[in-house]
Amino acid sequence: MKKIILLFLLLFNSIFSFSQNSEKGIWKSSYSELRLKFDENWQLITPQLDSERKTMIALTDSKDHSSITVKITDDVPKEQLSDEAYNDAVKEQMLKADAENKFLVQEVIDFKEKKFTVQIFLMKTKFGDFALTCYTYRDGRKVKSIQLAYPRSLVSNPGKELPEKIKKVLSDMNI
């Protein structure tokens, strides 16, 4: 019985990393190029998932409930699921969460030397009116997604700008 418990704990620890990949203000994946650098206003949400097949890490600012979530997962070939169909599914999911949610814009941008599709929404949340910016990159092997959520009041035009504190984390990110 002790061997089974030990085996379970080792397996659990290899799948869920409880900040073992982080130095003060830095988190690095053991399986991908993902690296986040952040200041003392951001806290890591635990547990983080870091495995060969999937990585998920989230930061939150408890003062205003802003958050940054980064996820890297296996993709399906684009012949099976086009970028358009994938982006439509993301949009549908965000809009059906609350009837008052609104889609603002979708565009393709260069980010970290890759072409990311960016979708921006206005969302009703338990913390009030939020803007949600979703970055998505697909190559048929991996999907890399970044979700940036922040109070609508932090920027004058959420379709065109991001809060400085989020821009700082993005600028220091490797993905």
UniProtKB/TrEMBL annotation:
Keywords of the record: Signal
Extent of the signal sequence: 1-19
Species per Swiss-Prot/TrEMBL record: Flavobacterium suzhouense
Record flagged with keyword Signal: yes
Protein name from the UniProt record: DUF1795 domain-containing protein
Superkingdom as given in the UniProt entry: Bacteria
Key word Signal present: yes
